[in-house]
Amino acid sequence: MYTCTTCHFKAWGDFVPALKSGGHNYVDCICTECNDFLIDEAVDTVLLQYEKTTDENGSEVYAVIGVSADCGYIKIPSTYHGLPVTKIADKAFLNVLGLKHVIFPESIVSVGDAAFEHCFELISVTILSDELTLGEDVFWDCQNLKDITFTGIAKMNVCAFLGCENIVLSDKITVIDTQAFADCYGLKSITIPTSVTKISNLAFENCYNLIDIYYGGTTAQWNAIVKYVGDDKGRDISWNAYTREYAVHCSDGNITKNRVDQ
Q1: What value does the mean pLDDT of the chain take?
Q2: Share of the chain above pLDDT 90, in %
Q3: Rounded to an integer, what distance in angstroms lies between the CA atom of residue 75 and that of residue 77?
Q4: Distances (CA, A) of 122 to 93, 154, 157, 166, 196
Q5: Percent over 70 (pLDDT), the chain
Q6: Residue 44: burial class (beta carbons within 10 Å; 0-12, 13-18, 19+)
Q7: Pairwise CA distance, residues 243 & 153, whole Å
Q8: What are 167-223's pLDDT values in tens digits?
Q9: Structurally, what CATH architecture does the domain formed by 39-257 represent?
Q10: Is the model's pTM score more than 0.85?
Q11: What are the backbone dihedrals phi and psi of residue 61, each rounded to the nearest 5 degrees, phi first?
């Protein structure tokens, strides 16, 4: 077994020559052994495809509509041909199977429905935008997505993160919408800011492995959040439907839910 001295990635066998010397083997900013990403050395992706459109004020902008070839990472530029890049279109990167890392610039304000659906190898997403709206099913079935870094997200829509794992929410989020984290089977922890005032039905449906919810406010503030509780013809459609045992960690104590096996 070999262990990387940089990130402590462990692997067995002779297929890890880089780790024998205790280091990474980077090709185009990504380690071929453990997928570590040199984000500071990443350059803007030249294979992106664009479409000129207008924003809500009628100004000309560009939307990213796809990529012409499979690639290990995508770094979206903030401008293209002198105009701001503000949108990622619906299904722009659907089924880009080799994609592992994505960087959004500050200029991006909206990400369309299913933009990264079925990007099975996607590991990390870095979002530098201060104000972002996510469409439906944006990261649907991104089974290996472990790290999402947000500066700010104004709104999430249905199933935006279906299939993802560990997430820290922006303090600009006020509503966790219906099925926002549904079927996130690998989700173990989530950090919810005090800005959240409502958690909708089925928001965490089937999050079987959710263990820790970290909340910045007090237990009283957590209890004051409007959380949907109810059923539909005998089916639980509450905000935490079909979850098991977890703890909500507040600034003045913890709130626990007893395990319920479904």
Answers
A1: 84
A2: 47
A3: 6
A4: 11, 23, 20, 13, 27
A5: 82
A6: middle
A7: 25
A8: 778 787 888 888 888 888 878 889 999 999 999 999 999 999 999 999 999 999 999
A9: Alpha-Beta Horseshoe (3.80)
A10: no
A11: -145, 175
User: Which of the pair, 73 or 15, is modelled with greater confidence?
Assistant: 73
**What tokens does 33 get?**
């052994």
Go through the chain and tell me how many residues it has: 262
Q: Where in the chain is the domain with CATH 3.80.10.10?
A: 39-257
Summarize the chain as % helix, strand, coil (round to 5). Answer: 5, 30, 65
135-170 residues labelled b (16+ CB within 10 A) or e (exposed)? bbbbbbbbebbeebebbebbbbbbbbbbbbbebebb
**The tokens of 238 are what?**
């509450």
Q: Which residue has the tokens 């929410």?
A: 169
Greatest pairwise CA separation for the chain in angstroms: 60
